[in-house]
Each structure stands twice: as structure tokens, then as C-alpha cells.
Amino acid sequence: MKTTYVPISHEPKRFWSALSSRSFKMRKPRVNRMVLAMCLGSFVMVIFYFQSNLKPATQGGDQARGLGKSGRSPLQTLYDTDPMELSPLQVMHQGRRELLEEACRSYTRKRRVLIPEDLKHVIVDDQHGLLYCYVPKVACTNWKRVLMVLTGGAGPDRHEPLQIPAHEAHVPGRLRTLSEYSTAEINQRLRGYLKFLFVREPFERLVSAYRNKFTRSYNTAFHKRYGTKIVRRERPDARPEALERGDDVSFGEFVRYLVDPATQREEPFNEHWERVHSLCHPCLIHYDVVGKYETLEEDATYVLKLAGADGEVRFPASGKNTRTTGELAASYFKDISPVYQRKLYNLYRMDFLLFNYTMPDYLRVH
């Protein structure tokens, strides 16, 4: 079967097409055989994923799974509502989708395709027709707990998310990710399942990651893995115990480590401070719901209702105070020089733009 080759663009298209290894071989007859063998051996899969409009395919064989109580998939429930009858909540989420699409068109120019590595953060719930891209430090532990309950991964005796210990929610293999499926199965789910993610003000998320990974005594693995490296690179005349333990990294040292070009040359960012657009690829995958940490419980309830699962599980209440988290972030940035504030903003700029977050007032970069 001949594969259609379509160049990637962020202008509206007719969905996507997959590039198979066979078509790759036909398309590149002169490629060195050794290189080709290496590519095939590493399971290269490329998915072209185009969005023609705000209503993805909601009919046909792709809906064999993930039907809600009403007999409709979450996508049908989301998009088959009369535009004149949308609730304020539905209008808000439609606005978020449109803002994200417009930002992608405005700020992304490079042509790009998805590979399996890009899909490792996308969790699959086949029973309810859901794809969730998890972002660390944006309630992902509770979302994993919820999905474990919904998919049966929590075990027969656990019906409440908070019955699942936090560390257990992150054990590999408890939830399937989209990268584990075949090309055809991936394409089917991208086209037919409700895709959602949750985001957070970038610097508040960054401060949360720093506090959790570098100021908690129990996170010795992070201290050894990253703390020692940061101390060695960013602290002149560091004491031997600091070089060995890496458990007293300051926020300023962490910031300098992040903006140092050598850091990403050495290895990718850890997922806890990696940018959302690099984890979830929102300009390549059309997310149907963009939830926000600032409206977490309302948005989580909305997703569960779309999936017909609101009667099965309740999203755990967070007890957070978004005003407090903003003030906390400001307190950490007050000792960061304007030069490094600007560098850090530039590093996370795309997350600010894509998800409609404004530059914090406490930054001194104007």
C-alpha cells in the first residue's frame, strides 16, 4: 500500500498520516544499508498528526472502545453539543483550545514529526477512551491514581484514588503509555480518544520541583544524581561533603544550572523541570481539553464527566492555595539577578505563550 507523504505544517490539515519503515525504504533507495538497518532495528515510527478543525473524527471503527454510559465516546460528548447551548465551562475550554492552536501557528515554524519517544508521557485508558499527557508537579500523581482506579490497575480492593500510595502511582508498567502500542493502534487512539493535559504557571511549577527535589531530605537519589553535579559546576570552592552529598543546592545555583547551555548538551532535562511543550508536544497533538492547575478540581471533574466516569471516581481535593504558590515563587525569585531571570524566562517562554500565562510581575526584566 502506497504511503502518502505530506509535509508537516501548523496550518489546518486533514489529520495525519503514518510513515512506515517500508515506505521509508522506498523513499530513500540510496541510504546506506547499515544506517537503514540501525534505524529499523531501533523501531523508528513516525506519525504525522494533522488537525483539520476543532472536531476530530467521532464516528466509525475508532469508537469501538471508550464508549461512555450514553453510548457516546468522550470526543462525541465534547464536540456534539450545539454551539448555542454551550455552558460557560464549555466556552472557557473551547477558548483554551483556540488560544493554543493560534499560539502554535504563531510561534512554531519548524517542521516536526512525532516518534515513539515523544509519546512516553501519554497514558492510555482504553476503557474510557482517554489519552492523558502527564506533567510532573501538575497533580500528575493524583491523575495517575484516578486512572489506575478507572483501568483496574489499582487492584480489586481499591476504589478510591487516595488508597494508592504516591510512590506506587509512579511505578513503571502500572499504566500503559501510548508509546507501547503499534503504529496503527497509536493512530487509532490519537484520532478517536479524548486527549487532555494539565498545565501550570511555569515558574510556580519550577519552584515546586526545586522544593520537592532539592530541599527534602528523603530525595537522596536526586541529590546524588543532580545535586552533586550542580554543586560541582556552580559553586566555587565547594566543601567536600557538599560535593559528595549534593543536598544543599540553592535556588540560584539551580537556575544557573538550568540556563547553562552545557546542561542540555549533556543530557535532556529531567521531566520535573522539562518544559511542558517538550513533554506533551501540544503543537503536534491536538489536545481536546487543556486543564490548568489554577482550576484543577473544576477541570478534572469536567474531564471525568466527559468520559462518563464521574460516578466511578472522584478526583482528590488538593487543598492548594494558588495565591500562596504565586507568593512563594516570588520569594524565591527575589534573589535571582535580572540577567538570570531573563535567561530563565526565555528558557520557559514557549510554555508561557502556548498556555496563555503572562510574565510574572515580580520579574525585574523590563
TrEMBL record:
InterPro entries: Carb_sulfotrans_8-10 (IPR018011), Sulfotransferase (IPR005331). The chain crosses the membrane at residues 31-50. The keyword Chaperone does not apply. Keywords: Carbohydrate metabolism, Glycoprotein, Golgi apparatus, Membrane, Signal-anchor, Transferase, Transmembrane, Transmembrane helix. GO terms for biological process: carbohydrate biosynthetic process; proteoglycan biosynthetic process. It holds the Pfam family Sulfotransfer_2. It is found in: Golgi apparatus membrane. This is Carbohydrate sulfotransferase. It comes from Clupea harengus (Atlantic herring).
